[in-house]
Amino acid sequence: MARRPHSFTEEDFESLEGRASKTEQKKAVQRMASLGSQLAELNTKQIQNLPVEERLIEALLDVKLITSNEARRRQFLRIGKLLRNEDETVILSYLTPQQGAKKTAQLQRWVDRMIKDGDVVINEFSKTYNAAERHTIRQHVLRIHRDMKQQADEEQLKASRLKLFNYIQQVALISDN
């Protein structure tokens, strides 16, 4: 096995900052596949009205015709990969009416508490919602704290909070099933 000709520099680590690890990417695909299974439970008219790519709509309609468990599992993985190209906020807006306004407000309070209190609340949330990944939540919270410390503009801070809220909402949808 050949050795690297040079050691890692600070630039090498900076280029990796913010990039999801392979494990996180796999878990994101699984999360999206779970969301896809919830989208597939919508009726045909609702699926056809989704503001997403035509390929995703066809995949969601095809899964209703598949009876083999293994084929359905593969189809949901495909749907999860197609969902990665879509806007999470739009997808979640179609699924959150199942949760209701009270649940959405509760999740927003979780987000506010996580940003304020950190690990204690993150651990509590992870115990309550079994699909939650502590590491991913911590990364989102740290990103928000970094933005606040660097006094980032309001739009960037709002975008970071929205990413955390979307993740929390996904976890809640998956855990409720």
TrEMBL record:
The keyword NADP appears for this protein: no
Bias (Basic and acidic residues): 16-27
SUPFAM superfamilies attached to this UniProt entry: PSPTO4464-like
GO MF entries: rRNA binding
Region: Disordered, residue numbers: 1-27
Pfam families per UniProt: DarP
Superkingdom assignment: Bacteria
A GO cellular-component term linked to this record: cytosol
InterPro entries: DarP, DarP_sf
Keywords of the record: Cytoplasm, Ribosome biogenesis, RNA-binding, rRNA-binding
Keyword match Cytoplasm: yes
Any one biological process term the GO annotation gives: ribosome biogenesis
Protein name: Ribosome-associated protein
